[in-house]
Each structure stands twice: as structure tokens, then as C-alpha cells.
Amino acid sequence: MEPRRRSYQGVTRWLDYQAFYPPGLRCDLDNAPTEEWWRWRGTDIHLDRLAAPEAPTKVVLLHGAGGYGRMLAPYARLLARESPVEVLAPDLIGYGLTSAGNRPVSYQEWIDCVTDLVAAEQARDGRPVFLFGASIGGMLAYSVAAGGNLAGLVVTCLLDPREVTVRMRMTRLPVMGRAGPSMLGRLRGLDALPIPMRWVANMAAMSNDPDLNALVRADPSGGGNRVTLRFLRTFLSWAPPVEPDRFTACPVLMTHPAADRWTPVELSRPFFDRIAAPKQLVLLEQAGHLPVEEPGLTQLGRAVGDFLR
């Protein structure tokens, strides 16, 4: 008999995030996105879907290292408020309700999984798909978009882990960023070792609200999660499949929080400025890395809504 799958009706830590958003964007057990499961290479991927069958387009929301699909539910509602769109948010492997099992997951598996999810959604009804990547989900979305077949790419930041200054800001201690790739390369034999994400990433700067940061760090589905050394090693040694100078696959919108204390816009600009495709940068006023502040939150919805239209 197939084991009973977990649900966000029972795993309810995500409800604690709702107080940080305006009332119109909050979700509860009665108005949350619909939960689905999608089988991919032997793994059950949890999906949140804010269905809109009459909408002309879809957006797939991709979380970063401290999040998961249900954590992004207020942003799904924000996008749906600004434009007729169906929104899908997966729990990437090892996060949220999507279990990695007993195997060490690589960053490339995240890319492959999202690539196949986009293809499945396109085959489902033929509607154009946009990708929206938050935090390190931005480069994940870029990697998928480089393969083509997307209507557009939205990111909050574009963090290139090949750059030592980027790695030093992403990690909790600068020495981790400086020595990370070479050190982890020598520890391949320990690839399966699980490491608390809060040991590695600077979760104290996830937002500009200390209470929200504490919630993220303690959430076992997100910032309180553990990832294997293999995931860290393959992410920190990753190189884009297409350099930005040759990226022409689709238009790009970067909605970067202007008050991001973790990864300021200066870290993303070198990569973004090199992108050859039509592109636009919108700075979200007074918003931190996880944007919950006004007017940045409203600016985010409007910028993405205009981009989709």
C-alpha cells in the first residue's frame, strides 16, 4: 500500500508567515492553493496550484534555499490579483513536502526537474509558461530558461556562484564563500552528509524583520532544513548552460528588492547587465531579500503583471 502523503492541511508552519503580509494576500486552510503531486523520476513532487483555467498564461514560482512552494502562496495571490494568470509553485526536491529520500540530491536535479515540469505544463494545455525565481531560484530559473520554450523569465536576483564576492555574501561566514568550492570538492566522499542550511546560509538577512527571519530559520520545511554536501558542492561549482552575453531565449524582468541586506543588487547587476535578451530592472522600494514591505510588494505585483501582459 502506498504510504500516506503529507499535506499542508496537517503541516501548518506556513500559516505563521501570513501575518507578515497584507490581509488581501494572506492564505489560510480554506483559501490556500490546491495541492497536487507530480511523479518525476521516481520522486513525488509536491505542487501548489492557484488554478485559473481561463487565464491566458501560467507562472511557475521557484523558491530559494530558505523557502518552499507553500511559503510563496502570498506571492501567487499577488500575481493573480494583478493579472489573469494561473500560478504553480513546486516544493523542490528536499524542501517542503517533497522528500529526497535517502539519496544526496544535486543542483542539476533541480534544474532537470523544473525543466520537465515546464514541459509537462505546456503539454497539459498549451498555455505559455513564465518562470519566476526568488533568491537562488533566480539562477535556477535562468538555467531552465536558457533551454528555450519559455514566454519570459522573472527573477528577484541573479547570483552567479562563480564569483567569490557573491559566494561570500550568500554564505553565513565569508570564509565559507571563499573556500567553499575547493573545500567541498575534496569532500566528495561525504556527499551524503546532511548539513543544516542555517549553518551555511545567512538566514539572519532573509528579510529585514528579525521575527520573520527567526521563523524562517526554525521552519524545518525551509530555512531550518538540511541539505547534503552534494547539493552545496554542485551549486557552488555550477556554471550557466548559456553565458548571459548569448542569452536570447526570452525577455527578462529582474524585480530586485532595493533594501536587500543579504544579496544587494550590486551582486546581481554584473550578470544581469550582460544579458543579451530584452530586459528590465525594477527596484522594490524599502523591500528586503524576502519582500514583504510596502511599497515594494505592490511594485512587485504591478511590474510582473505588466510583464505578463
Automatic annotation (TrEMBL):
Keyword hit for Iron-sulfur: no
Residue spans crossing the bilayer: none
InterPro entries in UniProt: AB_hydrolase_1, AB_hydrolase_fold
Keywords for this protein: Hydrolase
Single GO MF descriptor: hydrolase activity
Span of domain AB hydrolase-1: 59-295
UniProt key word Hydrolase: yes
Gene3D superfamilies per UniProt: alpha/beta hydrolase (3.40.50.1820)
PANTHER family listed in its UniProt record: ALPHA_BETA-HYDROLASES SUPERFAMILY PROTEIN (PTHR43689:SF8), HYDROLASE (PTHR43689)
Protein name: Lysophospholipase, alpha-beta hydrolase superfamily
Annotated source species: Micromonospora phaseoli
